[in-house]
Structure prediction request, 489 residues.
Amino acid sequence: MQSQLKIFSQTVRDCMRPAQVVIPASASVADMLGHMSGARTTSALITDSDGRLLGLITEQDVARRIALRCSGDETVSSVMTTPVEAVRAGDFLFRAIIRMRRFAWRHMPVVDDDERPVGEILLSDALAVAAEQTIHQIDLVTRGGSLDGLREIKAAQAEIAAQLMQDHVPAPEIQALISDINRGIHRRILEAHLKAMKDSDWGEPPVPFTLLIMGSGGRGENFLFPDQDNGFILDDYPDKKHTGIDAFFIELAERMTRDLNTVGFSYCKGYVMATNPLWRKTRRQWREQLGIWGRRRGTISVQLSDIFFDFSCGYGRTDFARELRREANDMIRKSPAYLQAIEEELYGYGVALGWFGRFVTESGKDAKKEHKGKINMKHAGTLPLVGAIRLLALREGVEETATLKRIGALREAGVLGGDEADYLRGAFNHITYLLLRQQLADFRKGKKVGNHVNPKKLTEREKDILIDSLKAIDGLRKRVHGEFTGDVF
Prediction:
């Protein structure tokens, strides 16, 4: 029997149709109507000179505005609807259903990561994939924006993750779903406070901005109940306006981080949050910060910047985030010794495997009682793998942030061999599966959700796969250490 929740692991790409009519904004209304008639379609997507989605024309626009007011010689740009809401081909399908149901839209344009149209999605097609029970689950993870409602989303998130795991959906896909739901919570909290500030004396944001989500959220690899790792990119502004403009974003950051903490995203212990001026900067200040990190390679600066490199845009101006990514990659190219400093810091994290393939578990007087005999799957499993792959990706200029996508890109570039890439993918899949399964079990029992797994409770097959996984990670770790430092083992 096929899962009623399969929609949570499907993307818009799985359900979209090709775009029938895509024309430049400079085209005439008559040309557009001819294309629409020839394609027998009820909409046209309008692009700018770079091919990016700029506007939309629907049959309602034709009936209400164009038929009665236009001669046909006018340009499409004069009659199109803009700005236009779109979804990305890689977005989860349930997100598209949410937006179309919320605004009573029958279809939405689909764009790629560069905002270029690649198709469209019809609500009728998407709903055909979703059963009635699925719609109920979708409503659970998109309920009212009150803090109580957002807290309930976290519980529903765990319920859906458990069901998907029972349906043998790979753990990284479940992580991507959890991350997507978490991004939605970030957006809703931010939008609620932007509206509240607009309706008060604060007014509109004084400059455009971007919310950065870093760490596991930036990679799309959240487990249950991650803490906060966020920051702001602000558009540049004159120095003389700093006091007033920064005051707005301090207020916004304090409201956002407070509510995120309330609904289940704990304050970051390292203070990697937009309330910290180190993570709240203008575009120019971010460029300057990258320069400082490239020149000064102390332990603190390396640790801070290492958190930063998995960032992605959580809200606002996506072009600010793309610009920052390009500049970060440029800094890496100009400062090769910088990656060596990160590697030296990372190499202190070994894998949980000792002599003769025996597991290394927590023990001794420094280990907490509840952790003794268990493996910290994050510190001695995913962290050394994610970190080593990140280093190689940064060195090669790979812009992907998700670990599996980075592995794929490195395989395509010839940095990883085919067998090595397969072993590392398998290692990531297996360790994330064991860790997510343990977290869900802890959640069901009302225990504190953490990163520790007892190897004695694994099946013999799971133990064998875990040993092979840790060996593959350790091999990668040693290889990367040799490449970045010249040490020979």
